[in-house]
Amino acid sequence: MANSSGRIDGNVHRYRVRVYYEDTDATGVVYYANYLKFTERARADMLRLAGITQRELLATDGLAFTVRRCEVDYLAPARLDDELEVHTRVLKVGPATINAEQVVKREGADLVRSLVRLACVNREGQPRRLPPAVRAALEALSRMELGA
Fold first, then answer.
1. What are the residues whose beta carbons fall under 8 Å from the beta carbon of 74, sequence distance 6 or more?
2. pLDDT confidence band for 3 (50 / 70 / 90)
3. Where are the alpha helices (DSSP H) in 33-111?
4. Backbone CA torsion sign across 117, 123, 127, 132
5. CA-CA distance, 127 to 115, in Å (whole number)?
6. Could you tell me if 111 and 104 are in contact, meaning their C-beta atoms sit under 8 angstroms apart?
7. What pairs with residue 86 in β-bridges?
């Protein structure tokens, strides 16, 4: 299974990931903190597919996204060599924040559910408003419907 930027289906970004040995604990179960890595990669690629390049945002506007809040429910374990899919939906776009839901699935079953709030900050870590083009891209993504 090749790892790519995933795809956007309606208002859901789908990102595939395989569980490698380095992702697991001594029993072959995914270590809990590694789900955060999986969801971070999925969010970054969702932004990229929406036309938001984080490196360019930092270079041109001096802005970055930081996790302000993260709530995670661990429902079932993933194991070594599992093929997982992270589903990400933008729930709300505020003046300087983004709320997203992320669900890690295996064969359609929910393993981990998380709610994440991202804040837009400058290089010094101070909150800043989302640039209009970024806000518009995220709002469009949150409104997309299947087949749109």
1. 32, 35, 111, 112
2. very low
3. 34-49, 54-61
4. negative
5. 20
6. yes
7. 15, 104
DSSP letter for each residue of 114-144: EEEEEEEEETTS-B-PPPHHHHHHHHHHHH-
The answer to whether 61 is a known catalytic residue is no
**Residue 145 pLDDT grade (very low, low, confident, very high; cuts 50, 70, 90):** low
User: Contact 103/86 with Cβ under 8 angstroms?
Assistant: yes
Q: Which two tokens stand for residue 29?
A: 């179960």
pLDDT tens readout for residues 82-94: 999 999 999 999 9
Tokens read off for 67: 């996790």
Q: Select 7-143's CATH number: 3.40.640.10, 3.40.50.150, 3.60.20.10, 3.10.129.10.
A: 3.10.129.10
Of 9, 25, 81, 110, the active-site residue reads 25
CA distance 93 to 34: 26
